[in-house]
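The records we work with from here on pair a chain with its fold. These numbers are not coordinates but entries in a learned vocabulary of local backbone shapes. To see the layout at work, look at the sequence and tokens printed below.

. . .
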Amino acid sequence: MSKKLTSMDMKWILYDVGNSAFVLLIASVLPIYFNSLATAGGLSETEYLTWWSYAASIATVITAFAGPIFGTLADFPGHKKRIFLISALGGAACLFCFTFPGQWLGFLVLFIAAKILYNISLVIYDSMLIDVCDEDQMDMVSSRGYAWGYLGSCIPFLVSLGLILGQENLGLSMTVIMTLVFMINAGWWVLFTMPLAISYKQKHSTARSGRIVHQTFGRLGKVLKDITKDKKVFWFILAFFFYIDGVYTIIDLATAYGTSLGLSQTGLLLALLLTQIVAFPSAILFGSLSKTQSVGKLIRVGIAAYFCIAVFALFLHSIWQFWILAFAVGCFQGGIQALSRSYFARIIPADQSGEYFGLYDIAGKGASFLGTTLVGIVTQLTGQQNIAVGALAILFVIGFILFGKTDKLVEAAQ
């Protein structure tokens, strides 16, 4: 029997509501805004998609180094809340300033900084799940986080969309409109960060001894060695690296991909809104199914579905096909993200959650280096965006095979 959500569960879930506004902005408005800056700067459509992909990859590579370090540091008593608050508010501050550069290269630099801070906040946030709820509630709470995040992010998105589409009637320049859009979304992020930041108490931690920097890197090195010995964690990280790279690449490049194909910007934005709406009940459904079905089996269903989505992208040429793609993504993205998070939280040491989720973030949150770089390179080599996105199917095949091995190890250990 599932327990009711506690006040602390709800405050943890609210951060998903807050940061999801930034996630939806990346998947919708930001690629279009960057496209206008890139066009004004003389970049072609192919160059636009390539630079956008590379910026996302750079942010992920930097996070791959910074995430585990800050995650390890956060495991010391009293550090987790502080690092979470600084990274979340820092990311929101960068978002607030997005219109200041006024040209494409400066914007990309600020975007990379915001994405890095966002990713670090997620390393800490994900690791907080162990302190917030009991193990038997993790699947449900994690799923509700994604579900309410999808639905809640629609509010600032709809306000932003109304401002953009109503720009002429409002009599404001597009620069002023975009400044308002970024201010609203940054404010939303801050608003839903504060309840968790104020109330969170770190229950599991690692004792501090000696110099903190020396101990941080020492513990990180030990965790890397421990993971190679703990086969179930090692194989999960490897599998997750491949399949979640494909998932986040599709999410982050969806609008950029559709824009480069010349599809209607309004249609693209509304299709992504559909994704968020569909994802709300779908994420809750996956959380409910985890009570009666194997979580490993549900994750494999999600990986297989994304393989089909990537193959479908090979034949995408019109807006109605993009709507089908958006609906399909909405059906599975919340489930695969939420259950992967809770699955991992269950198989790692509770007092080292920050360290382990720092490594989890290397393979996961962010635009994913492997996927975005693959899209950028294939687009440059072939000039065909469909082939580039379709190539992501390879990642899902590898991820499916590796996760099957992981799940066997986890079942054997139970």
Summary: The domain at 9-202+221-413 is CATH 1.20.1250.20 (Growth Hormone; Chain: A;).
